[in-house]
């Protein structure tokens, strides 16, 4: 194992990983003490059976004489979930059915969790000056601080102006804290549903759906639900034919809402895997994902997200120059220089976007299984709420 250089991991990244580790330790101890009993923080309480109803997103109706709808993908500069943000941005930007903007609370860098950094295009205030009538769609990913007052106020403002607000994964916490889920049907990441249900009792929390649409409020399950909801939004804006074309480009076969929440729960093997991987710090690998201008941002996000959740790796976007690169959908990522620094990395992944995004995700999880074992691959898939194929 090669030594990390002094810049290889920031203090905040280490603290985030440490926080997750102690959370896992707590869950493991609790499961050992209550072996054989339901764990309210982990086990999903299935509601009384009800017939499946496919969620319908309203067809988009143009407003303000705009030629294309305006989509704001928002996040906190201090830790926003990578795929939650980048996948909807990439799908909608590349579909060319909307004007899509990457917004942050401040200008400059946005740190993504669990890895990578992007450069935002506008601040929330910049956007308000450019579009005083508001956005047509607001995409809200999971953020580290779901009580961020700037984001909450802005979500409330955009809702009052008639935007369709889409909470991706634990973005549901921001929407709930903003008060816009009261009296609504909603969903969220499988791990959060019981806690959401306890705290926000005026919301009907729905399981077994990739996404739930209640009027102009849409929420999704875990990280990878960002894929079907993005295609569904393309269909809402431009119709099924365009949605099929985009789905094929990204390797998506079905973007319906069918989903089985009960498939996802942490088992003892996942706890032990997390502990073992985390404590084996001497064998952490530095993974460099080779990037170049025009790379597929959705594939980059899904691959980086998956490797970074193994508790075995530090993951970086790299390029020959170490300069910022602009993706196919015109999103800017910061990169680390690879030329002359190859020995810093244990693995360098090249051409990650030669396959459509979903196929690349499947191949990534398969490689993680080969590199680090099936338990680690399963642990990653459960975190991103994705059924291994």
UniProtKB/TrEMBL annotation:
Pfam family name, one: DJ-1_PfpI
Keyword tags: Membrane, Transmembrane, Transmembrane helix
Keyword DNA-binding attributed: no
Residues that span the membrane, as ranges: 20-41
Residues covered by the DJ-1/PfpI domain: 78-235
Superkingdom as given in the UniProt entry: Bacteria
Protein name, entry field: DJ-1/PfpI family protein
